[in-house]
Amino acid sequence: MGKIEEKKDALRKTVRRIADTFGHQNIIEWSGEIAEKVFTLPEYKAAGTIFTFVGMDLEVDTRQIIQRAIADGKRVTVPKTFGKGIMVPCEIRGLHDLVPGRYGILEPYEGCQEVLPGSGDLILVPCLACDLEGMRIGHGAGYYDRFLAGSEAVKAILCFDALVVESVPFTGLDVKSDLVITQSGVKRIGKVGVQDEP
Question: What is the full DSSP assignment across 127-145?
């Protein structure tokens, strides 16, 4: 294991200890505040397809986002995972289209249509922690970095304020996102002249 991976593992342990103190009610409340930030984004309003994860355990709960996006007439896709770190976005028409998959994470049922988000669409990205430069740390399987590297869609990390760190260690395989959304605001990465949104 290289030094970067050792640093990532140490960070994962630290942020999991922090997240373990949150409590279910706080996670639901903070997730709702993050969802409201998502709905006000011009990128959300413009997107025809929203690619989102289904929040598990210590991640942002995205069920409200899924339901609202479908109600807003958007195509909503959720990842279905396969071996060797591969995940494929598949369209769902409601929470009823989700079933427990690999690792017990909710995924689209067999037979859901594959839909790749394109330029102008919005990808909501999970994390264990992130920094305000658009770098994130996940669980370490590499699914998201492989997927994000091949997409031209706008990438937005959803993260609780308490899990935003000063700097996330990264390698050349890690993909930077365009936005970081927490319950306290929206941070735009590398956009000169654009004010951070409250």
Answer: -SEE-TTS-EE-SSS-HHH
